[in-house]
Write a structure and sequence with these properties.
Helices cover about 40% and strands about 30% of the residues. The chain has one domain (about 1-150): Beta-Lactamase (2-Layer Sandwich). By secondary structure, it is of the alpha+beta class.
Length: about 160
């Protein structure tokens, strides 16, 4: 009986984590759509400044918008302003994936979509799996990702 209860609790926690992750993905996509609308209505320069504002309207803790140009140069980032102005297309993630190259290619070919990679979570200071929704808006790529922390699964 105790094993059955433990299994049911584990299944419930896993299901809750999956639902939460799905909601976070929806939130990331929604934040990208809002930032894209902001670019269209306020202009590129004002939008990039707002995207780069820590705790601004596009920085919600682990959920934050950032932007690249169509060659992979970082244009805006609220958590790590040192990246702004750098061409990062050839910089791999912790597992060697050229995810920014994939972001640029997907933006140029499909206009929007999801890209998976590993990245340093600025809120936890740990390398975590991340999936990022991207959308091309004119000559910039608006992005927002969701971190998926696997470190507690199976606890």
């Amino acid at each position: 009986m105790k094993k059955t209860i433990a299994v049911l609790i584990a299944i419930g926690l896993f299901s809750f984590a999956c639902l939460s992750y799905a909601a976070d993905r929806d939130d990331a996509k929604t934040l990208v759509k809002r930032a894209a609308a902001y670019v269209k209505y306020q202009g590129k320069e004002k939008a990039l400044a707002e995207i780069s504002t820590p705790k601004g309207m596009f920085d919600k803790g682990e959920l934050y918008v950032f932007a690249y140009d169509l060659q992979g140069v970082m244009l805006a980032h609220p958590k790590n302003p040192a990246l702004i102005g750098q061409n990062l297309v050839a910089v791999p993630d912790a597992e060697g994936k050229l995810f920014r190259k994939e972001i640029v290619e997907k933006a140029n070919s499909k206009g929007s979509g999801w890209v998976d990679y590993v990245y340093l979570n600025p809120e936890t200071n740990r390398q975590e799996h991340k999936t990022t929704y991207i959308q091309k808006v004119g000559d910039i790529i608006i992005c927002c990702g969701v971190y998926k922390d696997y470190s507690h699964e199976g606890d």
